[in-house]
Amino acid sequence: MATLVEMVRADALDLAVLRAPAPGTADLTVTTVGYERLSAALPQTHPLAGRNAIDLSALRDENFILPGPKIPELAQQIQLACRQAGFTPRDYANADATIGLLSYVAAGLCVALMPPIPFPGVTYVPLHKPPKFTEITLVAVGRNSADLAVQRFLKLAARLA
Q1: Neighbour count for residue 159 (Cβ, 10 Å)
Q2: What are the tens digits of pLDDT across the range 5-14?
Q3: Domains contained in the chain, CATH given
Q4: Contact, 133 vs 6, CB < 8 A?
Q5: 136 within 8 A of 35, measured Cβ to Cβ
Q6: Could you read off the pLDDT of 109-146 as tens digits, one per residue?
Q7: 8 Å CB contact between 114 and 98
Q8: Sign of CA pseudo-dihedral 81, 117, 153, 70
Q9: How far is CA 26 from CA 5, 9, 10, 23, 146, in A?
Q10: Which of these, 113, 136, 107, 110, lies nearest to 54 by C-alpha position?
Q11: pTM (2 decimals)?
């Protein structure tokens, strides 16, 4: 399966929105379009699930599901955030797809750090005083397009970011 960057390069897509860094984009236009903040993804039955916010260090004794080898940048950010909070996450499992990550959490097997995405059985709790590595930059990757819609999207996104 072609990556989004390859699809942009092949003109199959005008634009792709990715998490930074976006490797292999030196010949493309990369524009920051927004930011995501990682939250604690917890099973709904977890003792911390009802809190308004938690310190990341409160998860030090938990098993984590971490992003797999297809998304190493996100896995690295999670590792760095946990280390900044004073611990190394216990790697219970890995998944390359969001549904895989969330399925493990919903089953009550582990916790995760990820942007909030609604999923049955999963509760998101924001991190109190989140480490700097919990903010993810989103970028739009495209060719130098004369397409007016693409130009307008990039201008609007850059202004909102």
Answers
A1: 8
A2: 899 988 899 8
A3: 4-35+137-160 (3.40.190.10), 39-129 (3.40.190.10)
A4: no
A5: yes
A6: 999 999 999 999 999 999 999 888 899 889 999 887 77
A7: yes
A8: positive
A9: 11, 11, 15, 8, 19
A10: 113
A11: 0.81
